[in-house]
UniProtKB/TrEMBL annotation:
Domain of life: Bacteria
Catalyzed reactions: 2 H2O2 = O2 + 2 H2O
Region (Disordered): 1-73
Ranges for domain Catalase core: 81-469
Taxonomic classification: Bacteria, Bacillati, Actinomycetota, Actinomycetes, Kitasatosporales
Classification via SUPFAM superfamilies: Class I glutamine amidotransferase-like, Heme-dependent catalase-like
Family named by the database record: Belongs to the catalase family. HPII subfamily.
Keywords annotated in UniProt: Heme, Hydrogen peroxide, Iron, Metal-binding, Oxidoreductase, Peroxidase
Cofactor or coenzyme needed: heme
Enzyme Commission number: 1.11.1.6
CDD domains recorded: GATase1_catalase
Full protein name: Catalase
Biased composition annotated in UniProt, kind: Polar residues: 55-67
Biased amino acid composition, Basic and acidic residues: 1-9
C-alpha cells in the first residue's frame, strides 16, 4: 500500500465520522442526575499526549526548556481542578440555597469559571483576522550559501517552522473562499533567532508607502455605517480608493484574476513582496525577492464555486489544510529567490526594486530554489498557537537585511505595535508559539504577562554586579550587524520618487500574460465587483483605469456594466508578457484531489469498489455518494457511504463519477401529482440533487465520468456525453484511466466559453 493510499483512505474515513461521544459527568456526586449516560468513574492515568499535542520545543527567556510541559497543562490530569489546583466535585451546578433556591455569591468556582469565560476573546487582528496555520520543517538545500550567511539557509540545515495563512479583509469568523489576497506568513525558529517571512500570495502590494495602509484598509473593510459587506472588495469605498490611488492597479488586477480565489492554501504561491538585502560571510550583498512555489502547482476556484462554498463550507480552506496534514499528505513549497546586483540605483532591467507594486518577471531573473518547506503537524490548540502567533517583518537573522522600500519601513513599526493591543502587552515573545528556539538573554524586564523569572540584579550594560553579563557579540560571534549602507545626502521631503509613478505597465504585462480563459475570468471579476458599486462616478473612473491597461479589457467590462468604454488618457505601455504568470497549460501532481462517486443500491457497486481502490492508489481521495447514509452491499462486501444526496455538493469534488443508475434519494425530490403527493408513476430519470451536482461540476470545468447506465444521470443533468472532459465508458476502470489525465490540468479549460 502506498503512503498516499493510506493517507487518502484516512481522509475519507475521518470525513465520514462525525459522531459525538458521551457527555462528561461524575456519577455518585451530589446533583448527578443522568444515569442513562455511562461515565468513566475511576480516575485514570492520562493518555500519553498525541504526537501533535507537545507544542513546539521552546526555550524560555531564561533559557529553560518549557514548551512540552506547558502544552500538557490541560486535559491531562486525573482530576478537574480550579485554576489554583483545588479539586472539584461538580462543575455543572451553581451553589444554591436548596435545589430551587437562590444561587450563592460565595460560589467561588462559578465566579472563576464565568470570569475566565468573560475574557476568553482577545481583539482580532486588524487585518488578516481569519487564518489557519500548521507546524512544519524547512530543509535548506544550501544553494543560497553563496549569497547569505543565514545559518538556516546553509547546507544540510533543518529548521522548525510555523506557517499561518489568512485572508486580509474578513473578520475572524468570515468565510474562506472570498475574493481577497491571502497572507502567507512563515516563522523560522532558526538557531540564530527567529526569522519571519511575512508575505502574501500576491507578489505586489496596493500601496507604495506604509502611511497609506490605514486608508486602503479603511476602504476595503465594511462601510462604517452599516458594517457591510463582510470580507468583500465588491463595494464603493474599495473601488473609490483603488481608482483614485492608481498605484493599486497592479495588485487589484491580481485580485480580480484567479489568484484572488485559490483552490487551497496548499496550491498557492507565496511572495515576500519587498526586495530584501542578503549579505554573505564575506560581507558581499545581493538584493533578493523571496518566492514560495507549491509542489502541487497554483490552482484556483471558479467564481461561482467560490461563492457557493462560502455558504456550503465557510471553513473550506482551513479544513482542507488540516485534513491533508492529518492524513499525512503533507503540503510542500520550495523557497526560492530572485537575485539582483546591489547597485546604488536598486533597479533591475529598468524595474525599480524599491517599488512594491512591481514584480521582476521570472523570465528576466530566474527563480532559484533554496530549500523545501513541509507542513506536517496541525496545531493542538487554535487559540494558543494560530491566534497568538505574532509575526514581524523586523524579526531578522544575520545574513538577511532590509531595503529602503517605504512600505517595509512602516511595517517595521506596525507589527510590534499591534501586538501590544492584540496580545495585551510587550511580553508576547514569551507565549510558547512565539518563543525563539535560540537561547534568549535579553535585558527586557517586567510588564504585563511577564512569565519569566529573570535572575541577576543588573539588567543594564555595562555592569559590574552581574559579572558584566550579558556580553555583546561581534559579527564573528553571530551578532546581527546591519549592512552599513551609504545614505546619499538628501533633503527631507514627503514625496515619492519619479520612478514610482508608472502604475500601468506592470498590470498590462499581467493582462497580456494571461490565457484567454484567465482573461475572461478577470473581465468577469471586474464586471461583478464594479456592478456591486452604487456610484456611477466610481465605475467610470475604474473604466478609465482599465483603458490604460488594455482597450479590450475596458470594452468588455464596460459592456457588462452597460456603460460606454473609456478612451485611454495615454497609450498602453509597450511590454512583453511573462508566460510564467499564467496558471493554465501545465500539468501538475493530483495528490489529494477529491473524487466523488455517485451510486445507489442499484448502481455498479463492484465497479465503485474497484474505482475507489484505484483512486486511493493514485493518492487521491474517493468519496462515495449515495441516496442515504450507511452502507451499500456489493458482491465483494459492504461499501461505506461517505456523502448522501443531502450532504454532497459539487464544490467539494475535483471530479465526479456516476457508477450505474444512482436512483432517487427521497420522495420529497420526486415529481408531484396535482394534490402535491409524490407521483410514483412519473419519477424523473435522476434525483434533482444528482442533476445539480453534475451540472455544477460541468459548469465549473470539472472532469465527469459515467458507466453502466450512469449516462442517464448525465442526460438528466443536461451534461452532453461528448463534451470535453466528459468520459463515458464500459467500466469504472477505463473511465478513471482517462479521467486521471484530465485532473493534472486542474480544469477542463475548453469548457469555459471564451468571448461569449
Ligand atoms: Fe501586514 C498582518 C502581510 C503590509 C500591518 N500582514 C499581516 C499578516 C500578513 C501580512 C500575512 C498576517 C500575519 C499573521 O498571520 O499573523 N502586510 C503583509 C504584506 C504586506 C503588508 C505582504 C505588504 C507587502 N501590513 C502591511 C503594512 C502595514 C501592515 C504596510 C502597516 C503599516 N499587517 C499589519 C499589522 C498586522 C498585519 C496591523 C495585523 C496583525 C498583525 O500584524 O500581527 O501589523
Amino acid at each position: 500500500t502506498s503512503p498516499h493510499k493510506r493517507s487518502a483512505d484516512k481522509i475519507a474515513n475521518t470525513l465520514q465520522s462525525n459522531g459525538a461521544g458521551p457527555q462528561d459527568g461524575i456519577p455518585g456526586k451530589p446533583g448527578f442526575k443522568s444515569p442513562s449516560v455511562s461515565e468513566p468513574t475511576e480516575p485514570q492515568e492520562p493518555l500519553p499526549p498525541k504526537a501533535d499535542q507537545t507544542g513546539p520545543d521552546t526555550v524560555s527567556p531564561t533559557g529553560q526548556p518549557t514548551g512540552a510541559d506547558q502544552a500538557r497543562m490541560a486535559q491531562s490530569g486525573a482530576y478537574l481542578t480550579t485554576a489554583q489546583g483545588a479539586r472539584l466535585y461538580d462543575t455543572d451546578h451553581s451553589l444554591k440555597a436548596g435545589p430551587r433556591g437562590p444561587v450563592l455569591l460565595q460560589d467561588h468556582h462559578l465566579r472563576e469559571k464565568v470570569m475566565h469565560f468573560d475574557h476568553e476573546r482577545i481583539p482580532e487582528r486588524v487585518v488578516h483576522a481569519r487564518g489557519a496555520a500548521a507546524h512544519g520543517v524547512f530543509q535548506s538545500y544550501g544553494t543560497a550559501a553563496s549569497v547569505t550567511k543565514a545559518a538556516f539557509l546553509g547546507p544540510d540545515t533543518e529548521t522548525p517552522v510555523f506557517v499561518r495563512f489568512s485572508t486580509v479583509l474578513g473578520s475572524r469568523g468570515s468565510a474562506d473562499t472570498v475574493r481577497d489576497t491571502r497572507g502567507f506568513a512563515t516563522k523560522f525558529y532558526t538557531s540564530e533567532g527567529t526569522f519571519d517571512l511575512v508575505g502574501n500570495n500576491i507578489p505586489v502590494f496596493f500601496i507604495q508607502d506604509a502611511i497609506k495602509f490605514p486608508d486602503v484598509i479603511h476602504a476595503g473593510k465594511p462601510h462604517p455605517d452599516r458594517e457591510i459587506p463582510q470580507a468583500q472588495s465588491a463595494h464603493d469605498t474599495f473601488w473609490d480608493f483603488v481608482t483614485l490611488h492608481t498605484e493599486a492597479t497592479h495588485h487589484t488586477m491580481w485580485n480580480m484574476s484567479d489568484r484572488g480565489i485559490p483552490r487551497s492554501f496548499r496550491m498557492m504561491e507565496g511572495f515576500g513582496v519587498h526586495t530584501f538585502r542578503l549579505v554573505n560571510a564575506d560581507g558581499a550583498t545581493t538584493l533578493v525577492k523571496f518566492h514560495w512555489k507549491p509542489k502541487l502547482g497554483v490552482h484556483s476556484l471558479v467564481w461561482e464555486e467560490a461563492q457557493l462554498i462560502n455558504g456550503i463550507d465557510p471553513d473550506f480552506h482551513r479544513r482542507d489544510l488540516a485534513d491533508a496534514i492529518e492524513a499525512g499528505a503533507y503540503p510542500q513549497w520550495e523557497l526560492a529567490i530572485q537575485t539582483f546586483p546591489d547597485t546604488p540605483e536598486q533597479t533591475f532591467e529598468g524595474i525599480d526594486l524599491l517599488d512594491p507594486t512591481n514584480i521582476v518577471p521570472e523570465e528576466l531573473a530566474p527563480v532559484q530554489p533554496v530549500g523545501l518547506l513541509t507542513l506536517n503537524r496541525n496545531p493542538s490548540n487554535f487559540f494558543a498557537e494560530t491566534e497568538q502567533v505574532a509575526f514581524h517583518v523586523g524579526h531578522l537573522v544575520p545574513g538577511i537585511d532590509i531595503t529602503d522600500d517605504p512600505l517595509l519601513a512602516g511595517r517595521l513599526f506596525s507589527y510590534l505595535d499591534t501586538q501590544i493591543t492584540r496580545l495585551g502587552g510587550p511580553n508576547f515573545a514569551q507565549i510558547p508559539i512565539n518563543r525563539p528556539h535560540a537561547p534568549v538573554n535579553d535585558m527586557l524586564r517586567d510588564g504585563m504577562h511577564q512569565t519569566a523569572v529573570p535572575r541577576g540584579v543588573a539588567p543594564y550594560r555595562p555592569n559590574s554586579l552581574d559579572g558584566g553579563c550579558p556580553f555583546q557579540a561581534g559579527a564573528d560571534t553571530g551578532a546581527y550587524v546591519e549592512v552599513p549602507v551609504r545614505i546619499p545626502e538628501a533633503t527631507k521631503v514627503r514625496e515619492a520618487p519619479e520612478s514610482f509613478s508608472d502604475h500601468f505597465s506592470q498590470p498590462r504585462r499581467f493582462w497580456l500574460s494571461m490565457s484567454p480563459v484567465e482573461r475572461e475570468h478577470i473581465i468577469g471579476a471586474y464586471t461583478f465587483e464594479l456592478g456591486k458599486c452604487y456610484e456611477q462616478a466610481i465605475k467610470e473612473r475604474a473604466l478609465l483605469v482599465l483603458a490604460r491597461i488594455d482597450s479590450e479589457l475596458c470594452e468588455q467590462v464596460a459592456a457588462g456594466l452597460g456603460l460606454p468604454a473609456a478612451d485611454p488618457t495615454a497609450p498602453p505601455a509597450d511590454v512583453e508578457p511573462s508566460p510564467a504568470l499564467s496558471q493554465v497549460g501545465r500539468t501538475w501532481p493530483t495528490d489529494g484531489r477529491v473524487i466523488g462517486i455517485v451510486t445507489g443500491p442499484e448502481g455498479d457497486l463492484d465497479g465503485v469498489r474497484t474505482v475507489r481502490e484505484a483512486v486511493l492508489e493514485a493518492g487521491m481521495v474517493p468519496l462515495v455518494i449515495a441516496p442515504t447514509g450507511g452502507t451499500l452491499s456489493a458482491a465483494q462486501g459492504e461499501l461505506t457511504v461517505q456523502r448522501t444526496y443531502a450532504t454532497a455538493r459539487s464544490v467539494e469534488f475535483d471530479a465526479v463519477l456516476v457508477a450505474g443508475n444512482p436512483g432517487m434519494g427521497s420522495d420529497a425530490y420526486g415529481a408531484r401529482d396535482a394534490k402535491g403527493k409524490p407521483a410514483a408513476t412519473s419519477q424523473p430519470a435522476s434525483d434533482p440533487r444528482v442533476a445539480l451536482l453534475l451540472s455544477e461540476a460541468f459548469r465549473h470545468g470539472k472532469a465527469i465520468g459515467a458507466w453502466s447506465g450512469g449516462e442517464g444521470a448525465l442526460e438528466a443533468a443536461g451534461v452532453p456525453a461528448d463534451a470535453p472532459g466528459v468520459v463515458v465508458g464500459d467500466s469504472g476502470a477505463t473511465v478513471l484511466e482517462q479521467l486521471a489525465g484530465l485532473l493534472g490540468a486542474h480544469r477542463v479549460w475548453e469548457r469555459f466559453t471564451v468571448g461569449g
